[in-house]
# Entry
Amino acid sequence: MPQQDQPANPAPLGLMAFGMTTVLLSLINLNIVDATLEKSFVLTMALFFGGIVQLIAGGIAFKRGDTFAATAFSAYGSFWESLAFYWVLNSEPIGLAPAASARATASFMIMWGIFTFLMWILTFKHSWNLVWIFGTLWMTFFLLAAHALRGTEILLRAAGYFGLVCGILAIWASFCILFFEHTGVELPGASRPL
# Structure
């Protein structure tokens, strides 16, 4: 039971928000779900669950003094917000921003890949859940950057597979933390990541 003066652990919420949004976009990258979904459900999921909810989780983590979680949730919440706003600004009826060039898109993904790689190094002090989540995520970003530059379908599909695994692992990590905090029992092979 959480103490009255201590906010609840934001990790399950932040991980679930990240995981579900990542899975949804990865299904599009894998061409399992129609890409028009990007303009509807992925956009709204990125704005609200992937974006705002992770920013809230990051704020709670800051309040709890958890610098790693605060940085991760706030940063990836901002990633989803910036991606969603780009989609909105670049959409047909609005058209306030021109379509990004291949190099601009690749640069965006490379910067996020570098940030994620650096965060991945830090995960080795946490748990194997986070090692795999961040490991598959930096690979996803670099594959998306390569796809932006080369335009080959195989690179997009590879990014989709890595992203799908990453999202599923984040959802699982969220459940493991909730399960432990609810029951006091750790699931086999799944320690509390944050």
Remarks:
- The chain has a mean pLDDT of 89.
- Residues 11-183 form one domain.
